[in-house]
Amino acid sequence: MQTRLIQITGIIWTLVYAGIIVWIYATEPRSFKEVATNSQVAAGVYEINQEKFNNALALFRREQFRAARDEWAGADPAQKDPRTQFYVGYACYREGWGRVYYDDALFKLGLEAVNRAIALAPNGTLVVDDPNLQMHSAAELKAELEQGTETGWKDVNPLKLFRQRK
Amino acid sequence: MKDVAEKNRALLHFIVLPTILLTAGLLGGLRIDGQTRQFVFIAPPLVTLVLAILSGALFVRAGAIDLHRWLAIEQPMLTNVAHLLTLISLFFASAQAFNSVLPESGLLHWMFSFFFLWALWINQFSNFDPRRLLRSLIILFGTAFVLKHLLVAALYDPQGGWLKAIASTLLQGISIDVPRFAPITGYISFFALALYVGGLLLLAPVPPDNSGVNKLALSEEALPESSGQSSLE
Fold first, then answer.
1. Interface confidence (ipTM) of the complex
2. Which of A7, A13, A24 sits opposite B78 (nearest CB)?
3. Average confidence (pLDDT) over B19-34
């Protein structure tokens, strides 16, 4: 009877441990801290650091976009919060926006972030009620970023000098 | 007293052994980046799976694993499932042990892979007993470990040293592209290999008798003297 119990325990333990190993290799954490974050995500208890988020928002409003992105990266290390990812995308948009040309690298980063936000949002729809923003939905921001990364005849239109940043 | 021994044997066989093998599997693919000091998990490349199959075949041929007694129709399902999981753990640990001592990319990766394939293939046609096989594997892994984590790592040591000077002279004109990992990677690899070898030492050719079925099987067939004991005994 005792051997049987040990066998059952062994089977369950081996399966759980093997599952943990497969999970580690699938998520590829880069540090013990990331292991802890990924575990929180897997357990469904993951929450962003609200204080860092607010700091980042303050920086964003002062147009310190790079610092804001760094703070948001710290607030949402697992990149699992749609609202934070939306703001990261927005920060990339505002930082990369130029009257003459757009910064392609930043727009691509922004596009990745906004795609994450859309994927994480329930039903793929995300609306952020922030009066300081001119684009409130992730779809709008995505379209703007996509247009920025596309090249065409409109790029040589001199009237684009009069366009406004959103 | 007999009960305690049986209980300990069962604990060792059904819990400790798979844990050791899986831990070897976990650590076998772990590297630490030389610059950022971050974890890098390298899943076993396809060639290591082939190598693990070849080494598994060697275990069976040499009698280190008596497959008919590990998985038998006469045994309870639970026992078979537990044994199957242990064998899968062994396969995974073998693949990761090879992964641990194989250079990650470039010319050296293929040279080491070829060296392993050749050694394991040749051994398929040799006469082995479990102890000789274990000794042979320790030497194989030891050599690869020394080559990768001492010789090749020395080539990329920023401080240089006599080994780097010799190797640079010998390999002048040959470009060897190997990712740079922190020295602690060598310690992790050593620990993974030690666990793997430890797991092999604990692996009994015939699993400990726990159902009464093996007794019958043992009486029906003549077994070599070492059967039923782990390689340690």
1. 0.82
2. A7
3. 94
d(C-alpha B120, C-alpha B131), whole Å:
16
B34-49 mean pLDDT: 91
Residue with tokens 């804001």: A68
Quote the pTM value. Answer: 0.74
Provide the token pair at A9: 């325990």
Residue B213's alpha-carbon distances to A13, B76, B217, B220, in angstroms, are: 25, 9, 6, 11
User: Could you read off the pLDDT of A78-119 as tens digits, one per residue?
Assistant: 888 999 999 999 999 999 988 778 888 999 999 999 999 999
Chain A residue at shortest CA distance from B20: A14
Q: How near does any CA of chain A get to the CA of B184, in Å?
A: 14
Contact yes or no for A14 and B22 at CB 8 A: yes
Average pLDDT, chain B: 82
pLDDT, tens only, B144-180: 999 888 877 777 666 666 666 676 666 665 655 667 7
Residue B173: both structure tokens together? 């004109």
Note whether B22 contacts A30, CB cutoff 8 Å: no
Higher-confidence position of B177 and B221 = B177
Phi then psi for B181, rounded to 5 degrees? -115, 160
Mutating which of A21, A28, A38 best tests the B interface, going by the most B Cβ atoms within 10 A? A21
Q: Which of B48, B39, B47 is nearest to B181 (CA)?
A: B39
HSE, side-chain direction, 13 A CA sphere, residue B42? 25
Instruction: State which amino acid sits at residue A46.
Output: Y
pLDDT above 70 as % of chain A: 100
Token digits of residue B43: 């899943």
Cβ separation A8–B78 shorter than 8 A: yes
- Judged by CB atoms closer than 8 Å, whether chains meet at B210 and A3 is answered as yes
Measured at the alpha carbon of residue B108, what is the angle toward residues B103 and B111, in degrees to the nearest 5? 115
Candidate from A13, A17, A24 with C-beta closest to B41: A24
Residue A153 sits at the chain B interface (C-beta within 8 Å): no
Give residues with Cβ within 8 angstroms of B172, minimum separation 6: none
